[in-house]
Amino acid sequence: MSFSLSDQNDTIIALATPQGVGAIAVIRLSGKDAIQLTNEVFFGKNLANQESHTIHFGTIRDGEKIIDEVLVSLFIAPKSFTKENVVEISTHGSSYIINQVLKLFIRKGARPAKPGEFTQRAFLNGQFDLAQAEAVADLIHADSETSHQAALSQMRGGFSSEIQELRSRLIHFASMIELELDFGEEDVEFASREELRTLVERLLRVVEELILSFDLGNVIKNGVPTVIAGKPNAGKSTLLNALLNEEKAIVSEIAGTTRDFIEDEINIGGVIFRFIDTAGLRETTDVIEAIGVSRTQEKMKTASLILYLFDLGDTDLFEINRDINKLENQGVPFLKVANKIDKANSLLINELKEQHPDTIFISAGQKDNLEELKARILVLVNLDKFRTGNTIVTNVRHYDSLVKTRESLLDILSGLDNQITNDFVAMDIRRSLHFLGEITGEITTDDLLENIFRNFCIGK
Ligand SMILES: Nc1nc2c(ncn2[C@@H]2O[C@H](COP(=O)(O)OP(=O)(O)OP(=O)(O)O)[C@@H](O)[C@H]2O)c(=O)[nH]1
Ligand SMILES: [Mg+2]
């Protein structure tokens, strides 16, 4: 797939709603001939005489044959998503009708849109910058409140505006320093080195914060990895099933039932958690179970959160303290979850309440107190910062450019410290400008564009 400039003159068409049967389907056209092409097959009124942002009832006909009764919405350039003429045709949602309409338009000269081509045109026509265009894709794929928030804030400008502002101030310094170079031997200084340092340090802080936010961004997109760990038979698989409300993992009274890990997503309070049920932790001579145990230990290291689950009827304070000690050394946040409260003796419960008052008592089998467990999980991961509209980088491409920007900014600073000559400072500044420009799309290459828009779905 490539985007040559001549493609840009085509009028493109695609189904904008999902494939399959629905009450209505929306077919979208964009391009300079969009209205004229529609006029050729639409009967009701002359679309060429209508105003932008109006809706018209009529029929779509292929020669004598009526295909469907439809509503046609008009968006006249530049007042549309792509800034081109856009027509949206709402038909009845049968795949037969959709296919007939698409075929008819293609016969008349429209071209099937490539994935993301509508958004690509919007970008090329200056509707928004590249980071915002990518956010459109994220927004469509967002399936939780937090990932939706992150995509929306990026699409509406997010960190682009801040980066653009700092970048334009850096451009100013670059030109000043290059002017100094023009004056050669004469000892003039147009650009204050102290002001340059202050600006670079500020940029560095912004860039570093964005780099840090990438880890959080990933969590939002892919779910918080949460491992349920504990001895065999503690009830880990039972807890996973109870949280999922389905019988996903096999539960049995045989210790060592789960050998490989099983995972699934659960939405708690608008945040996606990826729960991972693991093989119970114990010394074992069974080869396969031993592999499972070592995988559990691996999973625990990469988790954002561990639910340490124990059976109140099959442990004691000594064992619990030993496990907690190990967990504290691992450094991953964890919750102490005591299971099988329905058949527990009160001695251990009282000891726990005294020594570990933050223990959560549940019965996975009876689904008791799971709401409190969920509430405590939410508090522990503390995702509040996602809700306050802080900027979060969720895109690998942005992350790469940010890391390169950081390196080149550090080069500017060390250049200033070591009083290197102007031409080198100017080069480092140019390099920083380049990487910053890559994020917002002020600097693009064909490869880059192609890669980004390939990940969109057709019709967007
Ligand atoms: N009474 C009672 N029994 C429970 C509870 N939760 C789980 N069980 C029982 O405990 C046994 C073990 O449960 P599992 O969920 O398979 O335990 P596990 O931790 O996944 O065990 P492994 O996969 O072998 O490591 C099963 O017989 C469950 O029915 C509970 O809250 N109360
Ligand atoms: Mg299990």
TrEMBL record:
<protein>
    <recommendedName>
        <fullName>tRNA modification GTPase MnmE</fullName>
        <ecNumber>3.6.-.-</ecNumber>
    </recommendedName>
</protein>
<comment type="subunit">
    <text>Homodimer. Heterotetramer of two MnmE and two MnmG subunits.</text>
</comment>
<feature type="binding site">
    <location>
        <position position="257"/>
    </location>
    <ligand>
        <name>K(+)</name>
    </ligand>
</feature>
<dbReference type="Pfam" id="PF12631">
    <property type="entry name" value="MnmE_helical"/>
</dbReference>
<dbReference type="InterPro" id="IPR006073">
    <property type="entry name" value="GTP-bd"/>
</dbReference>
<dbReference type="InterPro" id="IPR006689">
    <property type="entry name" value="Small_GTPase_ARF/SAR"/>
</dbReference>
<comment type="function">
    <text>Exhibits a very high intrinsic GTPase hydrolysis rate. Involved in the addition of a carboxymethylaminomethyl (cmnm) group at the wobble position (U34) of certain tRNAs, forming tRNA-cmnm(5)s(2)U34.</text>
</comment>
<feature type="binding site">
    <location>
        <begin position="233"/>
        <end position="238"/>
    </location>
    <ligand>
        <name>GTP</name>
    </ligand>
</feature>
<dbReference type="InterPro" id="IPR025867">
    <property type="entry name" value="MnmE_helical"/>
</dbReference>
<feature type="binding site">
    <location>
        <position position="254"/>
    </location>
    <ligand>
        <name>K(+)</name>
    </ligand>
</feature>
<feature type="domain" description="TrmE-type G">
    <location>
        <begin position="223"/>
        <end position="382"/>
    </location>
</feature>
<keyword id="KW-0378">Hydrolase</keyword>
<dbReference type="InterPro" id="IPR027368">
    <property type="entry name" value="MnmE_dom2"/>
</dbReference>
<comment type="similarity">
    <text>Belongs to the TRAFAC class TrmE-Era-EngA-EngB-Septin-like GTPase superfamily. TrmE GTPase family.</text>
</comment>
<dbReference type="InterPro" id="IPR031168">
    <property type="entry name" value="G_TrmE"/>
</dbReference>
<dbReference type="InterPro" id="IPR027266">
    <property type="entry name" value="TrmE/GcvT-like"/>
</dbReference>
<dbReference type="Pfam" id="PF10396">
    <property type="entry name" value="TrmE_N"/>
</dbReference>
<feature type="binding site">
    <location>
        <begin position="252"/>
        <end position="258"/>
    </location>
    <ligand>
        <name>GTP</name>
    </ligand>
</feature>
<keyword id="KW-0819">tRNA processing</keyword>
<keyword id="KW-0479">Metal-binding</keyword>
<feature type="binding site">
    <location>
        <position position="252"/>
    </location>
    <ligand>
        <name>K(+)</name>
    </ligand>
</feature>
<feature type="binding site">
    <location>
        <begin position="277"/>
        <end position="280"/>
    </location>
    <ligand>
        <name>GTP</name>
    </ligand>
</feature>
<keyword id="KW-0963">Cytoplasm</keyword>
<dbReference type="Pfam" id="PF01926">
    <property type="entry name" value="MMR_HSR1"/>
</dbReference>
<dbReference type="InterPro" id="IPR027417">
    <property type="entry name" value="P-loop_NTPase"/>
</dbReference>
<dbReference type="InterPro" id="IPR005225">
    <property type="entry name" value="Small_GTP-bd"/>
</dbReference>
<dbReference type="GO" id="GO:0042802">
    <property type="term" value="F:identical protein binding"/>
</dbReference>
<feature type="binding site">
    <location>
        <position position="258"/>
    </location>
    <ligand>
        <name>Mg(2+)</name>
    </ligand>
</feature>
<dbReference type="GO" id="GO:0005525">
    <property type="term" value="F:GTP binding"/>
</dbReference>
<keyword id="KW-0547">Nucleotide-binding</keyword>
<dbReference type="InterPro" id="IPR004520">
    <property type="entry name" value="GTPase_MnmE"/>
</dbReference>
<dbReference type="GO" id="GO:0005829">
    <property type="term" value="C:cytosol"/>
</dbReference>
<feature type="binding site">
    <location>
        <position position="237"/>
    </location>
    <ligand>
        <name>Mg(2+)</name>
    </ligand>
</feature>
<dbReference type="GO" id="GO:0030488">
    <property type="term" value="P:tRNA methylation"/>
</dbReference>
<dbReference type="GO" id="GO:0002098">
    <property type="term" value="P:tRNA wobble uridine modification"/>
</dbReference>
<keyword id="KW-0460">Magnesium</keyword>
<feature type="binding site">
    <location>
        <position position="233"/>
    </location>
    <ligand>
        <name>K(+)</name>
    </ligand>
</feature>
<keyword id="KW-0630">Potassium</keyword>
<dbReference type="GO" id="GO:0003924">
    <property type="term" value="F:GTPase activity"/>
</dbReference>
<keyword id="KW-0342">GTP-binding</keyword>
<dbReference type="GO" id="GO:0046872">
    <property type="term" value="F:metal ion binding"/>
</dbReference>
<dbReference type="InterPro" id="IPR018948">
    <property type="entry name" value="GTP-bd_TrmE_N"/>
</dbReference>
